[in-house]
Amino acid sequence: MTIPRLQGAALATVVLVAVGSVAAPTAAGAAPGAPGAARYSAGAASVGDPYFPDQGNGGYDVQHYDLTFSYDPATRFMDATATITAVATQDLDRFNLDFRGPKVSTVTVNGHAHGFTRRGQELIVTPRPKLKAGHTFTVVVKYAGVPGPITDPDGSIEGWVPTDDGAFVAGEPQGAPAWLPTNDHPTDKATFRFTARVPAGLTAVGNGQLLSQKTRDGWTTFTWDSTEPMATYLATITIGNFQVTESTTPSGIPVYVAIDPRLVAGSAAAVAQIPQMIDFFSATFGPYPFASTGAIIDRAPDVGYALETQTKPIFSSAAGVGTMAHELAHQWYGDSVSPERWSDIWLNEGFATYAQWMYTEHTGGASVSQTFNSSSNYGRAASSPFWQTVLADPGPEEMFSNIPYNRGAMTLHALREKIGDGAFFRILRAWAANHRYNHAATADFIALSERESGQKLTAFFDVWLFQKGKPTTW
Ligand code: ZN
Q: pLDDT (tens digit, 9 = 90+) per residue, 365-410?
């Protein structure tokens, strides 16, 4: 889904425009020189993000993913039908989806069955009739087998992670294709609907709102609807034995919390504060961007991290207060506004970490400047390896190290001290508003900061984002 950029005062008057066509110069079978003739070519096999060069594809723009499946934790077997609605952005005779899941039986495009091939994470589809730029098309992929985890450059696992009572499902930065054919890059957001059939007694918890839940013949079917655009890496449909609690925040946002019964006590403080966290962040960053909120607290000891899955962050062990605040803050920064390239990861992790510092201060803990100066932050020696990575390009092995988190948050605090609270909080709100449901890059943040502060900030951002070494003057 391509969403026009919202800039400053233009906010109120933006109209969604049709996706433009991009004429491809080389064409298999186009009449040479015929004006207006379709020039069909293959969509690119990548969006060109250097951290994950196989991720994403060109030639189309996904609008909606619909996944209907059964999963039995006893056998770990999944039987799935994915229906993907997309708009061609060029005349296409071939396109790819990213898929690392189980065996594909059939692929249809607009109802016509097609041959397909798989190479690495590419599912390569050759639609006939060919697809014209600007036209909407529907791809149906049927597959069945045992999905599994994906290992990241830093050694951590994601994707489809079986647990002792179901599956923990998380996809940052490259796990979604483990179980769903996608255009797997945050620059192509879409709406999602998941219909999951699991053995009765288990719960399947997805992003968005629960549309229905029905038990019949020993199986329960859950349908979850994500009504706002979402990046593929933020999708989840996690399955397990969960205690479910539904409530609403004081401002009326529905809250759905699913907790593994073994983790209820250890997560109680964090869960109790969800409404006040949402309210504090809404007051600070602007309105909560989604139709519902909540959390999924599961036991997946091999995962070891939490993820800001849209509307319901997921935890792989008991949720602490700080981590809950971090993952909920990501709903503004990371989820609604996503990184344009993975090298922009500090825009996710630095913002969520700074929000966590602010929540700590707000609830009577350390002040943000105390945290800034602590021994895990600015107090680190200049010789520490912590300072030896460029924050604006940490590389795929370091993207979830403490560098984007802590140095990212420090960058924001240093900016706040340099330009003052007025300009700083205007920037945070404008960032969330201008790029809502979209993606943005570090250069956009620098431009916004200069605009809102009226200051030239080249030297400031150079020291904090683009240079190695501990900043000393800025
Ligand atoms: Zn984070």
A: 999 999 999 999 999 999 999 999 999 999 999 999 999 999 999 9
Cα torsion for 161, 164, 165, 166, to the nearest 10°? Answer: 10
Q: How far is CA 83 from CA 67, 138, 381, in A?
A: 6, 7, 53
Distance from Cα 40 to the centre of ligand 1, integer Å: 41
The alpha carbon of 42 and the centre of ligand 1 are apart by a number of angstroms equal to 36
SS3 sequence, 279-334? HHHHHHHCCCCCCCEEEEECCCCCCCCCECCCCCCEECCCCCHHHHHHHHHCCCEC
pTM: 0.94
From residue 474, alpha-carbon distances to 71, 280, 417, 443, 471 in Å are: 54, 30, 11, 18, 7
What is the 3-class SS of 403-419, one letter each residue?
HHHHHHHHHHHHHHHHH
- Cα angle 151, 315, 333 (rounded to 5 degrees) comes to 85
Q: Ligand 1 centroid vs 349 CA: distance in angstroms?
A: 5
Domains located in the chain, CATH noted: 1-239 (2.60.40.1730), 242-331 (3.30.2010.30), 339-466 (1.10.390.10)
Give the three-state DSSP class for 87. strand
- In Å, how far are 56, 337, 340 from 50, measured between CA atoms? 11, 20, 12
Is the omega angle on the peptide bond into residue 404 within 30 degrees of 0, that is, cis? no
Q: Write the DSSP symbol of residue 8.
A: G
Ion ligand 1 neighbours, Cβ < 5 Å: 349, 352
**Distance from C-alpha of 1 to C-alpha of 464, rounded to nearest angstrom:** 33
Reported as a single tens digit per residue, the pLDDT across 139-163 is 999 999 999 999 999 999 999 999 9
Q: Is 438 helix (H, G, I), strand (E, B) or coil?
A: strand
DSSP label at residue 173: T
